Amino acid sequence: MHLSSREYLDRGRNLPSYYGENRLVLLPRDPYWLFAYWEIDIPTRQGLAKEMQRDYASLNFALRCHRFTENNGVGSYFDLPVTPAADNWYIKAGIPDKQYRLEYGCYLPDGGFKVILTSNTVRTPRDSLSEIIDENWQLPDWQARRFYWRISRSNLSSLEMMQHGLHRPRENIGAILK
Amino acid sequence: MGNQSIKGYIAFIFHSHLPYVRHPEHKHSLEEKWFFEAITECYIPLLKVFQGLERDRVDYAVTFSLSPTLLAMMEDPFLQDRYARYLSKLQELAAKEEERTAGDPVFAPLARLYRERLDFTADLFLEKYGGRLVEGFRELQQGGHVELLTSAATHGYLPLLGLQKEVLYAQVAAGIENFEKIFGTVPRGIWLPECGYIPEVEEILGELGLCYFVTATHGVLYAEPRPKYGVYSPILTSGGLAAFGRDPETSHQVWSSKEGYPGDYNYREFYRDIGYDLDLDYIGNFLHPPGIRSNTGFKYYRITGSNEHKEPYNPHRAREKAAEHAGNFLFNREKQVEYYGELMDRPPLVVAPYDAELFGHWWFEGPQWIDALCRQIATTKQIKMITPSQYLAQGYPLQVSTPNISSWGDKGYHEVWLNGKNDWIYRHLHEAATKMIALATENPRAEEPLKSALNQAARELLLAQSSDWPFIITAGTMDSYARTRITSHLLRFFDLVKQIKENKIDQAWLQQLKTVDNLFPHLDYRLFQNLDETVPIEKSRLSSVL
Fold it and tell me: Which residues in chain B have Cβ-Cβ distances shorter than 8 Å to A132?
């Protein structure tokens, strides 16, 4: 049985590099890192160069990473300079269990930041036990210690267990679970 | 409430999955062999174990998740036929091996063992099930000891596709629909691909009538608020689903590279295969593809030790070892539930999920171990095997808590599926999904030929979304195959979109696509309709069934 070749079915083409849209997409990778990809269409690039009266490639681009403590609450931000040709970036967001949103933009001559694209909002995963305890579902302290000691021990390989020191496990609960 | 004399429960979950691999355009496909090996070495040996337990009326309980792509491959006549040919070639080799080893006191019995196994396989596959392996699973489900789970349609890694909830909906709904068509029942639980969990998926699971899912250890352990009983009791999510967290001890005991059971020196050595050991003149014709060195499944040596020297395999000794390891596993579970039981107001539940494909293929004695374990557990009073549904039916009150975003992949989160090697795929996958959602929403009642083109577009998108492609790219072996697969499905998808928009559908080409990428023949593109603007037709149909 012979069916059409891949060349026929796929029309021998490759995927486009860009789709001619303006978008910035943010994905969480783990409790500490985010990944973003983006694209800016040609009219927007041209408009920006005209407005800034400079070559597009000579503009100072950056990602502004906003971190929110609570849902839609007030947060802080930090900037990461990126090259004009870059279209994706890994961002060390640094804190688990927080909401993040990105802006892609360029610096103005007066030091201001012109936002070109805004991303979706994501939340980084937790990497430790929740500090929130439901009082109806609470083990007495000594029981909780026993409970989590065994889980934390078996979460790790034997080598890691040795390094953490099994002889004094209770003092190490925090270190192991964090 | 549960039986008071029971000290603890154990829920074994075997997750079976392969990506949709079907290549009628090639005479020999290396990748189709994944499926063929899994049938011969895993699915049939496992079915045999559970059939034996049924026959001997052993009181056991296990859960099997069967991914929709795997089920579709099992139900595909072309692959059934190809497997039958593959099997008959192996039987031919088995006969030759018996001849070659005749009179040898060590190797002749081993050659006979393989011949008998293959004869049994052929008998079961061809005679009993007429090529339809799903019958075996259906029988087990009807027996009441085995619970079957569904998974996402093409095993899409939901946390990275979840940007568009329509994608989550389509992946889950198409999986359920496929399950229902094959088994005639609706699944109560779902295996989230790679245990990949994000809170956004819950509403969709609930709407589609699912009651529970399984997470990695830290999916439940790090839930908020802090779960009182860690992973030893399921939690209830705010969406009303139960989340079962993986027990870390049981996975360590089986899979630890240092202390895990499969590394025992008495067990069969995976890397000594006659496909590599014997002359090409003799074995060449039995290789897949012919003449290229690869595994045949005929392996005559045991692990023996850590160096190259290997002694012949002793099946009797290996079987004893498997029973011994089952005893050790059970002993450790008794100690474990005793420990946790003192701290809990209910018997602890140990959730032990494993990849089914490792049992029998990689760990040859794995099925024997499970067999021995189920029989040993049945004779104890302290521990009882249970399925997640049976556990929920006990009626223990569950703590309300939100699971942590997590996966069971390396490092516990999304990095296996999102790293420097494979991150380029998401730009295309998200764009394709946006286009699919728009087309499905704009065309609520498409007529032919538009309908066929839209259905095929949905098929190509689902195929591109398999978690296997980024996984294989990360692993680095066979990565060109994975790149080609994801690129091909996306190119075909975008071409369909263009033809649909321009109203110029190339019928001959579409027909070819439907033949090659024939996954889920009944797939309805409307599963991708915008969830905010429309009530998908499939959705209302599904909920009426549920």
Answer: 224-226
Instruction: Spell out the domains of chain B, with CATH numbers in brackets.
Output: 8-75+132-268+313-411 (3.20.110.10), 418-545 (1.20.1430.10)
Specify whether the CB–CB gap between A128 and A178 falls below 8 A: yes
Domain match, A115 and A141 both: no
Give the strands of the sheet with A88-92, arranged side by side. Answer: A23-28, A33-39, A88-92
CA-CA distance, B294 to B275, in Å (whole number)? Answer: 5
Residue A130 lies in a domain: no
Tell me if the bond preceding B290 is cis, omega within 30° of 0.
Answer: no
Q: Which of A9-13, B160-164, B169-173, B415-419 has the lowest mean pLDDT?
A: A9-13
Pair (A110, A167) in one structural domain: no
**Does B544 score more than 70 pLDDT?**
no
Chain B residues lying within 8 Å of A25, measured CB to CB: 163, 426-427, 430
Distance CA B506, CA B74 (A): 30
List pLDDT tens digits, range B31-64. 899 999 999 999 999 999 999 999 999 999 999 9
Total number of domains in chain A: 2
At A42, which CATH number?
2.60.40.10
Specify whether the CB–CB gap between B134 and B74 falls below 8 A. Answer: yes
C-alpha distance from B262 to closest chain A C-alpha (Å): 17
In Å, what is the CA distance from B490 to each residue of B223, B231, B464, B476, B507?
Answer: 36, 39, 6, 21, 19
Q: B64-80: per-residue pLDDT in tens? A: 999 999 999 999 999 99
**Cα–Cα distance measured from residue B289 to residue B30, given in angstroms and rounded to the nearest whole number:** 7
ipTM: 0.92
The reply to whether residue B405 touches residue A25, judged by beta carbons under 8 angstroms, is no
Mean pLDDT in consecutive groups of 10 residues from the start of chain A, 178 residues = 61 85 96 97 95 93 91 81 96 94 95 96 93 92 87 55 32 30
Domain that holds residue A154: 135-177
The answer to whether position A1 is within a domain reads no
Strand-strand pairing, A23-28 and B383-385: unpaired
Q: Is A110 in the same domain as A171?
A: no
Rounded Cα distance between B82 and B74, Å, is: 11
Q: Say what the pTM is.
A: 0.93
A14, A28, A137 ranked by CB distance to B399: nearest: A137
> From CA B178, how far away is CA B186, in angstroms rounded?
10
Q: Is residue A54 part of a domain?
A: yes
